[in-house]
Amino acid sequence: MANLFQDVLFDELKTRALVEQYGSPLLLLDCEKLADQYRQLSTALPGVGLYYAVKAFPHSAIVNTLNQLGARFDIASTGEINLLRKQKVNPRNTIHTHPIKKDKDIKDALRFGCSTFVVDNHAEISKFRKYAHRVGLLLRVAFRSPDCAVDLSRKFGCSPEEVPSLLKAANELGLHVKGLSFHVGSQSTSPGTHVAAIEACSRLIEEYEVPIRILDIGGGFPVDYDHGNDIDIYTFCAPIRAALAKLPEHVEVIAEPGRFLIAPAAASITTVAGKAMRGDQPWYYLDDGVYGMFSGRIYDHARYPLHVFRTGPTRPSALVGPTCDSIDVIEEALELPELEVGDLVVGRMMGAYTAATASTFNSLPIPRIVVFGEPAPR
Ligand code: PLP
Question: Over the stretch 209-229, which tens digit does the pLDDT of each residue have?
Fold first, then answer.
């Protein structure tokens, strides 16, 4: 098969052919690229069990592709469990990583067969008392990372100082804390935050008299939104590999990557539906925007690499979405040649936290997702 993103989406005729066949707007999902990302990260983190963070893009073709590659899955809701169940994922290959759960969430996960849960506070630990014989817990520790695009330790994770008392509380309830976990924040700018967190967890593991078997190093592995190129993840992970090599031998390491696996495996096609001069900028109204697959522009603080097929002198221009809300602006002051109604705009790195957070505001449908290269179900 042609390389979707290199051979097709930089070729106007081929891109137009896709629109003629499937309509516009479109989100194209390339499962071969997804498999390639999975292999790259597996090589960069040898011996680390990779649990795909389903929340990044919960889609059956993604689950099927990764399942066939031997990946495992990080789930955070009953909806995600239902998706995995349909794809016949072995529940033993899943962990439930939401630090705050209702009893029904725990029951649903246990009924599915998932028995590893993340906790980060006393109230959450108490919820597991009645399931003590059936569960193993991971205690999530917070390491703030203000440099990350999304600092996830603001909302979740106990402080390293709280770890001993939480471990003690779990122990007193007869609960088995089998590991520590952290998430340094999404789209990490450097491996230094992972390294510091691994070293801090290593110290905690060594201090605790009951053996802690698992260290879950979360997600945060970045992609190149500036240029849409593949990031050299092997080099990025070199300091992380070095830090992991110093862990006590009995510690099994796992990770929960979302963005790195799926962001480069999807691309968008939108069409210019209208144009107007607003102030001194041309505004181009696309048939999808921040309420649709560009929702990550708001929630994920992401800026996607975009290209058009016209050439010629450029000027700062705005690309905006189709809804009636003025927040629906994808880019302002983007250097573009003059576009015409009917022109296509292609976005890359569109797989993570895009369709996952899209809405149907204005009763506009979520863009159609077209899947390429999915392996036949087993
Ligand atoms: N695990 C948890 C608990 C998360 O909250 C997230 C993202 O929000 C991920 C994993 C995936 O992180 P990333 O997409 O940065 O790899």
Answer: 778 999 999 999 999 999 888
